[in-house]
Amino acid sequence: MLSSPAEARTVRHLIDSESHADYVYMYPPRQAYRPFSPEVLQRLPQLVRHSLDHSDILNLYVHVPFCRQICSFCNLYTVRDGRADLDRYVDLVLREARWYAALTDRKQVASLYLGGGTPSILAPSQLERLVSELLALFSVAPGEVPAETALEVDPASVDVAKLRKICDAGVNRINLGYQSFIPTEVATLGRVRAERSGTRLLEEALSVGFANVCVDLIYGLEHQTDESWRTSVREVARIGPETICAYPLTLRPHTGYGRRGYDHVNGAMLRARYAMAHEILTDSGYRQETHVRWVRDGGGYRQKANHWALQNILGFGAGARSYLWDLDFRNGYSVRHRQAVLESYGRQMEAGRLPADSGFLMTDDERRRKMVALNIQSLDRTRFREMFGTDPFEEFPDELAALTGAGVVASDADRIWVPNRWLGDRDLFSQLFFSADVRRKLEEFTYDE
Ligand SMILES: C[S@@+](CC[C@H](N)C(=O)[O-])C[C@H]1O[C@@H](n2cnc3c(N)ncnc32)[C@H](O)[C@@H]1O
Ligand code: SF4
């Protein structure tokens, strides 16, 4: 990681020396979260209320951590459990949501995202209940589903009949976590994959009537080759969902990969695979939206875009994260004691206590850093000035001078951006804007969670 602005001068060197940085999709990264003190926990309702009062717009997230298997690369908060009591889980989530709803006026709900884990294991009736009750609690227009009402779908957990019911329940975007279209690669992820769940399922999904079908792929997987990666990307592009996300692999200890020693990926290889995906997708008519997302005809990922625009995202469920104006927090996390997090969530909710346990208190300085770190690929200077009363070049003169000096960031009066040539390295540049406090916390962090 780049540890000071001065080191930005070596940005080109880092790129040349095959360095790579993990995907920066939140700021601060969760490794900078710390357990909340009793005083902060006591102030939590006040902090949440103050954050929600800051805006008329709200985004809702529900974490459904249950999965049929724990995939080798995955370090998300998930529990291996195909027999979970999902009705009880939905009850707990709604109880948590009611608690937060009592703190705030109704809002314009810009997005509702059900993620995981595998939220597609919910029955359509459970989904419908979640969507309608959450909107009844938070929305100024509870009869209207948000422009993005999204569900993450494990392709092995659905067939076209279930997808139709999911669509009828009000879901207008599905996120299909394929990761690869090569059966042998999928098998090495430890994934159960039904025979129908490849190409045919994706074609069927596109016929159901969702406004936005998204396919997730990962590059850098064990046993993946340049050629097999191209095959996966070409296959998805040929079928043509509205959104394609191609993520560089993030490696973490205590995952299947970590345990079997697959713990290093080469930066040059990742850069090459990023470039391959970009070429195939743009040649197929996709427009690049960020360094991990290509879209066509109404594609996109609103909740992520809204998060990066510093809108409030309020999350419910075991392991859920909330990103609010005054603080980020989460309802537990562990990859070593997965069941304990779920049990603790249930106990807290049944005792009438909030399950939030750790996070990060934002300051004005951290919000400015968040805005630049998450949006360096295309930062609206006018919007930044409206929000903070100052220009990014005044706030971060050394960092931006170093990046523009190295030729990897450009600017005009309205915008700062990473030119296409360097977009694949956006995460290296984002890290330059991390505060000293966040850097210290990242350095102190140990993966014994
Ligand atoms: C929140 S996860 C969704 C998980 C979902 N259950 C699934 O697998 O379909 C969203 C996407 O992040 C990506 N992802 C998850 N873990 C990753 C990792 N360790 N490295 C790179 N991408 C990852 C995957 O493409 C995944 O589909
Ligand atoms: S990748 Fe998806 S399905 Fe696999 S363990 Fe992670 S959340 Fe579950």
Short description:
The protein is an alpha/beta fold. The protein has two domains: 5-24 and 363-444, Orthogonal Bundle (Arc Repressor Mutant, subunit A), CATH 1.10.10.920; 37-308, TIM Barrel (Alpha-Beta Barrel).
Which fold name is given in CATH as the topology of the largest domain?
A: TIM Barrel
Kindly report the average pLDDT value.
93
- The CATH architecture of the largest domain can be named as Alpha-Beta Barrel
Would you identify the CATH H-level superfamily of the largest domain?
A: Aldolase class I
Instruction: Quickly count the helices.
Output: 18
Q: How many structural domains? A: 2
Q: Beta-sheet strand percentage?
A: 15-25%
Q: Which ions, cofactors or small ligands are bound in this entry?
A: S-adenosylmethionine, iron/sulfur cluster
What percent of the residues sit in helical stretches (DSSP H or I)?
25-40%
Largest sheet composition: 9 strands, mixed
Query: How many individual β-strands?
Result: 18
